[in-house]
Amino acid sequence: MEREFSFSRIGYVYVPTTRIDESIAWYTENLDFKLIQKFQDRGSYLAVLHHPHLNSIALLLIETIDKQPMEIKRNGNSFPIMALNCPDIERTHKLLKNKGINVEDLHTLGAGEAKYFYFRDNEGNLLEAAWSIWDPQDEYKEEFVDKGNYKIKD
Predict the structure, then answer these.
(1) pTM of the model as a whole
(2) For the residues of 72-137, what is the DSSP string, one character each?
(3) Which of 47, 53, 74, 144 could make a disulfide contact with 79, Cβ separation 3.0–4.6 Å?
(4) Tens-place pLDDT, residues 123-136
(5) Which phi and psi angles does 96 have, rounded to 5°?
(6) Over the Cα atoms of the chain, what is R_g?
(7) Which residues pair with 129 in a beta bridge?
(8) Beta 34-41 vs 114-120: how paired, if at all?
(9) Residue 78 and residue 144: Cα distance in Å, rounded?
(10) CB neighbour list of residue 27: distance below 8 Å, 6 or more residues apart
């Protein structure tokens, strides 16, 4: 007997922005996202962005007039709203720093099984770059590989 699931996976992550076009440019230029579609819904714009990973969830930038950068408070400390996996976190840390993005120090957990650092997007939303030995092997979407915009390591 086959099991029916009520939910199959996380579909979207919503991130607010007061400047949608600037945020689209920031995420595509700095974090390797690709704009899939921008449209109006209920009085403001939404932008659907995808990452190159074959089964990645979509990022939806939600335009709002309410400037309220997102972060989670964890025991009084700031905690990110979203983590992005990095196949080479040291390279990513250096790359973002060289682009002038304010990145925090790179932290190592355990005996090197995981690494992470925090940074903020153009609107102040707190994000995390993460790597661990438990990350799944990446498979990439054909439209990312074929465009020549990204270097995919074998």
Answers:
(1) 0.85
(2) EEETTEEE-SEEEE-SSHHHHHHHHHHTT--BPPPEEETTTTEEEEEEE-TT--EEEEEEETTSPP
(3) 74
(4) 999 999 999 998 87
(5) -65, -40
(6) 17
(7) 84, 117
(8) unpaired
(9) 33
(10) 33, 49, 59, 61, 121
Residue 16 in tokens:
């607010």
Q: Both tokens of residue 112?
A: 């090197």
How distant, in Å, are the alpha carbons of 20, 45, 79, 87, 153 from that of 26? 10, 16, 21, 20, 24
Q: Which amino acid is residue 142, in one-letter code?
A: E
Q: Are strands 82-85 and 126-132 parallel, antiparallel or unpaired?
A: parallel
The size of the chain, in residues, is: 154
What is the residue whose two structure tokens read 């590989």? Answer: 145
Quick: pLDDT tens for 39-83.
999 999 999 999 877 778 899 999 999 999 999 999 999 999 999
